[in-house]
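Module 6 notes. Inverse folding takes a fixed backbone as the condition and produces residue identities as the prediction. Think of it as a translation problem where the source language is geometry and the target language is the twenty amino acids. Below is one complete input and output pair. Work through it position by position during the lab.
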């Protein structure tokens, strides 16, 4: 039975008590009050409330995302966090153009906190085209839930045609041998017993484009339905493309394929959903080959990463920029590409049991034309020490210096491997050393710690030694003395940490799939998926981040999960740019890219 209100109950009682009597004045009064009550109630509802009615936000078509500033933190795949959180101004040209705030010195570092709008202004989550993809993770019976990748079916001019014309990929050598075996290069013999009997190839350090692309073909969660995709892969061989035209070609030729690709992508419906923010591609070269500062033919590289569409996509490169947020470092390829887990386990056990007679070693040549290089001091210290093994490389090139077996044999015989900057911040040698179970010694944080945040532990002292290049250059400290101060038990722990990281630092054979281990490809794909997933959730929740400074993107990558406040860091001097923002750092990086090519020429 429906319960009555106290008011209606008293009214009925009075009517029952008054039966048989004439109470017209009272009835008239009650009727008048009742009429007045209903009049006021209707007036309040239709006039007062009606004038302040809040309408639901209209549904927006997917294209409207191109007209928003999408601001997101980067993914934090365990145990690392790139943590790029963008505070951007949007310049519309049918896509997003990210412009970061300028860095000012002697100003308190910003606090980056999310700003979440109230529910009344949010768009209905069901109206977003990517909601179906987000919901796949809820299906516990689907092993690919939340992990699907959609691969664009690009015209062959963007990839396969380059392989057919492999002789054009390097001006100094026939690159075709390096594209053999799905990009691994020719198989190496094991005459000296340095390698395993299987899984070792003469892999070119810039072959990640084709290796990654072929690994993607074996990815277990590919889909032809882009609405299910956690991320979208663009199989453009960006590194191979620019390698064809770096020397002797004008900017029109160097930019042609990148502009063609962008035009093709922007006509696809998949692009329009998020303006390309869910797309990623791989370029097996350093970032400076894709960051030309002007349209002068004398400037280096192309401008792929400065194109508006290039800024929207995630680009995986073997060396990223510490001052930009749209590229991410992935390992250089080593010579080891196992087809089975057992091959990895066998190699790790072998590295644990090796006797290492050298305290430290160095493979490399001096850089007399670079006054900031410490390679000369390192070579001198190694020559003077009885505990150091040296493989000195020159422009003419010693055969042993460029022999994989000689290099790996030296690394396997040493406790520590010195890894100063190469022609740019990074070196393939660092990954070869760790593959050999040799503890790397870095002299600049951008050589590893702020580069490979998806693949290396944040606690760098657990697996490596850091000696500031400034201490070597100005204080002439003894590297041997510093390494000898590390207790033997600590050295053992560090070496075990390095050996345990080997699976995530190598690229498995693209023609097979490791059973339980995750290789460098798997780690990178997981990181991209996590990043895109966070971006989508931020869009749904209308979450934005204030005070983001793109020039400090290297520092955001060091923040712990949930940490938002930046502070002064001991590595600040390593990443300072000129106060007049004259792009001196970018120019020097471009010069380093040129030198890298010159030294590559000497190695052929």
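Target side of the pair, the amino acids:
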């Amino acid at each position: 039975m429906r319960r009555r209100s106290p008011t209606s109950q008293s009214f009925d009682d009075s009517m029952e008590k008054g039966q048989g009597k004439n109470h017209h004045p009272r009835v008239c009064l009650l009727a008048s009050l009742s009429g007045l009550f209903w009049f006021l109630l209707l007036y309040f509802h239709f006039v007062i409330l009606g004038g302040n009615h809040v309408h639901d936000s209209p549904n927006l078509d997917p294209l409207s995302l191109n007209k928003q500033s999408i601001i997101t933190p980067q993914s934090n795949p365990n145990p690392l966090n790139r943590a790029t959180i963008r505070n951007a101004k949007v310049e519309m040209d049918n896509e997003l153009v990210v412009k970061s705030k300028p860095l000012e010195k002697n100003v308190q570092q910003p606090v980056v906190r999310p700003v979440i709008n109230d529910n009344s202004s949010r768009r209905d989550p069901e109206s977003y085209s990517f909601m179906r993809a987000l919901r796949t993770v809820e299906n516990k019976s689907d092993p690919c839930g939340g992990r699907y990748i959609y691969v664009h079916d690009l015209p062959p001019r963007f990839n396969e045609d380059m392989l057919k014309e492999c002789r054009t990929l390097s001006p100094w050598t026939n690159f075709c041998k390096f594209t053999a075996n799905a990009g691994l290069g020719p198989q190496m013999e094991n005459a000296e017993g340095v390698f395993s009997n299987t899984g070792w190839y003469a892999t070119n350090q810039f072959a990640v484009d084709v290796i990654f692309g072929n690994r993607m073909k074996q990815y277990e969660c590919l889909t032809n339905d882009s609405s299910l995709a956690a991320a979208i892969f663009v199989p453009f061989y960006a590194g191979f493309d620019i390698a064809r035209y770096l020397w002797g070609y004008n900017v029109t030729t160097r930019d042609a394929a990148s502009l063609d690709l962008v035009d093709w992508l922007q006509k696809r419906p998949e692009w329009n959903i998020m303006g390309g923010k869910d797309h990623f591609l791989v370029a097996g070269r350093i970032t400076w080959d894709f960051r030309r500062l002007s349209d002068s033919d004398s400037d280096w590289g192309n401008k792929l990463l400065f194109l508006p569409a290039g800024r929207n996509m995630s680009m995986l490169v073997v060396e990223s920029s510490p001052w930009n947020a749209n590229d991410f470092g992935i390992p250089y390829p080593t010579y080891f590409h196992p087809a089975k887990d057992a091959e990895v386990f066998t190699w790790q056990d072998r590295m644990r049991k090796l006797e290492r007679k050298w305290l430290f070693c160095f493979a490399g040549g001096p850089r007399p034309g670079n006054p900031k290089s410490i390679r000369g001091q390192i070579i001198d210290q190694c020559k003077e020490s009885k505990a150091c093994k040296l493989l000195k490389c020159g422009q003419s090139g010693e055969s042993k210096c460029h022999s994989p077996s000689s290099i790996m044999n030296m690394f396997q015989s040493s406790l520590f491997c010195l890894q100063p900057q190469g022609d740019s911040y990074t070196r393939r040698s660092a990954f070869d050393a760790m593959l050999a179970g040799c503890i790397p010694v870095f002299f600049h944080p951008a050589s590893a710690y702020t580069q490979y945040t998806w693949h290396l532990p944040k606690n760098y002292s657990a697996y490596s030694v850091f000696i500031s290049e400034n201490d070597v250059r100005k204080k002439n400290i003894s590297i041997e003395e510093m390494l000898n101060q590390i207790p033997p038990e600590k050295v053992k722990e560090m070496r075990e940490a390095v050996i345990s990281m080997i699976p995530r630092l190598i690229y498995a054979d693209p023609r097979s799939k490791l059973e339980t281990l995750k290789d460098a490809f798997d780690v990178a794909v997981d990181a991209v998926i996590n990043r895109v997933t966070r971006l989508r959730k931020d869009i749904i929740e209308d979450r934005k981040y204030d005070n983001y400074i793109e020039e400090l993107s290297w520092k955001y990558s060091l923040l712990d999960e949930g940490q938002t406040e930046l502070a002064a860091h001991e590595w600040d001097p390593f990443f300072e740019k000129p106060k007049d923002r004259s792009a001196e750092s970018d120019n020097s990086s471009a010069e380093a890219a040129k030198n890298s090519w010159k030294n590559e020429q000497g190695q052929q």
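Reference fact for the lab report: Confidence is low (pLDDT under 50) at residues 1-23, 45-108, 580-585, 597-604.
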